[in-house]
């Protein structure tokens, strides 16, 4: 495994996080041990991440996690897949539902709302935007305009995170299983 950027020590990452107000619990994560080379940028990314995950969330958490897992699968982001696998389990998604994002069009264990947000992900990754047809379907399954905005931001945010993780070759934390539950990987990277 190559190392594009040397990860900060946990101690240096904690100090940088404290300096800019990034939660200390994030600093030991590999992604933050890389991001905190630029503390101001790490803070800005954390603020959006925290808004999407905790404080300003409008979009159903299940749909958000399916979005993230699809992005991780299509882009081949092991780090994103492996980290969010644990979070998806935490919020109650069954392993079979998460694995279904790999080939969601054939999945019989995903609902209509699940499939339409996954179509929105695929449209965005393939064409850079959500098509009119898919947007209209999203609008029939997603309750509010605030949720639709959040869906678009979530797709963009986690696509950017995948690119960042893969480009900076951020490794998984020690002891974290790669590509759960079965080790099947999408792509050639380990990031």
Keywords:
191 residues, AhpD-like, globular, mainly alpha, 9 helices
Number of helices: 9
What is the average of the pLDDT values? 94
CATH topology of the largest domain: AhpD-like
Name the CATH class of the largest domain.
Answer: Mainly Alpha
Count the strands? 0
Specify the CATH architecture of the largest domain: Up-down Bundle
How is the topology of this model organized?
Blueprint: H1 10-20, H2 30-35, H3 39-55, H4 61-75, H5 78-90, H6 95-99, H7 112-127, H8 132-141, H9 145-167
Helix pairs in contact: 1-3, 4-5, 4-7, 4-9, 7-8, 7-9
Task: Tell me briefly what this model is.
The chain contains nine helices and no strands. The chain has helices spanning 10-20, 30-35, 39-55, 61-75, 78-90, 95-99, 112-127, 132-141, 145-167. It is globular, with a radius of gyration of 17 Å.
What does this structure look like?
The protein has 191 residues and is mostly helical. It contains nine helices and no strands. It has two domains: 46 residues, no CATH class; 107 residues, AhpD-like. 61% of the residues lie in helices and 0% in strands. Helix 1 crosses helix 3, helix 4 packs parallel to helix 9 and helix 7 packs antiparallel against helix 8.
């Amino acid at each position: 495994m190559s190392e594009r950027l040397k990860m900060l020590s946990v101690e240096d990452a904690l100090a940088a996080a404290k300096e800019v107000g990034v939660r200390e619990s994030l600093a030991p994560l590999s992604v933050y041990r890389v991001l905190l080379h630029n503390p101001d940028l790490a803070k800005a990314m954390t603020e959006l991440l925290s808004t999407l995950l905790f404080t300003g969330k409008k979009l159903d958490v299940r749909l958000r996690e399916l979005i993230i897992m699809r992005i991780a699968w299509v882009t081949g982001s092991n780090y994103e897949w492996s980290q969010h696998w644990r979070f998806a389990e935490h919020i109650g998604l069954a392993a079979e539902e998460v694995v279904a994002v790999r080939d969601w069009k054939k999945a019989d264990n995903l609902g209509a709302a699940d499939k339409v947000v996954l179509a929105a992900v695929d449209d965005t990754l393939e064409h850079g935007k959500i098509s009119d047809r898919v947007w209209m379907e999203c609008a029939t399954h997603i309750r509010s305009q605030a949720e639709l905005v959040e869906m678009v931001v979530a797709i963009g945010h986690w696509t950017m995170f995948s690119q960042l993780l893969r480009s900076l070759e951020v490794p998984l934390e020690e002891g974290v299983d790669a590509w759960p539950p079965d080790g099947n990987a999408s792509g050639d990277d380990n990031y």
